[in-house]
Structure formats: C-alpha cells, structure tokens
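Example for tutorial group B:
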C-alpha cells in the first residue's frame, strides 16, 4: 500500500495543472513572437547595422562587436553581442574609467540604443527575449538576495520594465525590484506596453547614465538581503511607477 501511495503521489506530481498549461502556452506564444519580430527587424535594419558597423570600425577600430558573458534564464551563461562603444583600457593614455574610454560616437550609440541592434541575434538564438529583465554580469549572480535572483526565472530582454522607468538613473534595488515585479506580472499586454514606452524613452534619451557615472555603477549586492517589497500600484500602462535599463 505504501508503494502504491508513493506511485500515486509521483504521478500526481507529474500532471500539469491548468495554470502550468497556461504558462507554457504563454511562453510558447512569447517565444514565437520574439522570433518573428527579431527576424523581421533584422531584415529591416540590416542597412542601418552595416552603417553603424562601418562607423564603429572607423572610429573605434576592430572588432566592431562587443562580446561579453552574461547570465540568462535560470542563470545560464550566454554571450551577449553589442556594438562597441568604448576604446580599450590604456592607463598610459588615461583611459581607465568608463567615462575616459567612452567616445562621442559611443555616447551617441548608447543614447540612441543603436549599440543594442546586434542583440536581436541573441533573441533569435533564444538567449534573450525582446522584453524582460536586462542581462547582467555573471559576477552578480551570488550577490542577489533570493528574491532578487527570481529575475532569472525568465529570459533577459533587449528592453524591460526598468528600462522604461528610469534606466541607469535608478538605484540597483529599484531596478531589481522592477525586474521581479515584471516576472510576477508578465503578460502580452505588459510586453506591448513596455515596447511602446521604450520607443518614447529612446527618443527622449532619458536615463542613459547614472548620476556621476558614464554608465552604471557596479552592483555590489544588497547589504540587508531584505526581500523586495510587494507589487507596486499599476499605472495606465499596467506598469508600476518608478523603474530602469
């Protein structure tokens, strides 16, 4: 009887609930839309990609692409691809900090988010989604609190909730708070709202860098490791107030 009971419990644990099936259907739809949109965008912006690549080659030299290991869904590591915006470090020439290495061309590419165009390839590969928490450095993985680490329950995004609510002008706890809020409230409508808000944010060139920094300061962890606060009130775009890139 004990063996039979264990077998029944095991089988029960393998049965998908309606909620599980709904989640799988939603993720499959999101992935299909990501692939279709990324493929279409890559075709449409190929001439622009070639122009930006030529400008980077002329202004910064080769390689024109910046490649870096980032943490993706479930913490799996992938190689993020973007256009280069900085010169190599060179202490002899005073190029040590990000602000010293960032060129006028690089600032323009970051301000307009044109440096992100190659990440559409990451979307096609399945490393990323069009919308989701931004992919951060692998070194940050052990620095998250258990609640903050939930940002890795979904694929990272080219844009995200934090990116349309302050980008780098936000503090790290605010950004991670928004990332977890997105994980708990993600939907097709929210994704469409974030994409629309992203266009406005890029056109206004808002929140490109943190105060006193050319980009964003390093995330050193949350000292208290306190759980992130509960869901914020929703706005007319179903997006909480306050947020980053």
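The residue assignment follows.
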């Amino acid at each position: 009887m004990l063996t039979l009971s264990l077998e029944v419990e095991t089988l029960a644990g393998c049965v998908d609930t309606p909620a599980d099936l709904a989640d799988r259907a939603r993720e499959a739809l999101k992935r299909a839309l990501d692939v279709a949109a990324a493929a279409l965008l890559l075709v449409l912006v190929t001439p622009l990609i070639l122009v930006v690549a030529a400008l980077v080659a002329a202004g910064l030299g080769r390689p024109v692409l910046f490649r870096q290991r980032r943490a993706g869904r479930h913490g799996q590591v992938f190689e993020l691809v973007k256009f280069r915006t900085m010169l190599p470090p060179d202490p002899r020439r005073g190029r040590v900090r990000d602000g010293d290495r960032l060129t006028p061309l690089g600032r323009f590419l970051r301000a307009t988010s044109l440096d992100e165009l190659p990440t559409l390839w990451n979307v096609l590969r399945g490393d990323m989604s069009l919308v989701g928490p931004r992919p951060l450095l692998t070194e940050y993985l052990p620095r998250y609190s258990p609640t903050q680490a939930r940002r890795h329950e979904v694929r990272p995004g080219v844009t995200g909730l934090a990116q349309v609510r302050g980008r780098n002008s936000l503090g790290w706890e605010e950004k991670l708070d928004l990332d977890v809020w997105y994980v708990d409230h993600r939907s097709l409508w929210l994704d469409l709202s974030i994409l629309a808000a992203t266009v406005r944010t890029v056109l206004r060139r808002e929140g490109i860098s943190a105060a006193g920094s050319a980009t964003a300061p390093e995330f050193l962890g949350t000292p208290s490791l306190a759980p992130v606060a509960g869901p914020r009130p929703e706005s007319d775009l179903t997006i909480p107030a306050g947020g980053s890139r």
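Residues 190 and 238 are 6 Å apart (CA to CA). Compare this with the pattern of hydrophobic and polar residues in the output above.
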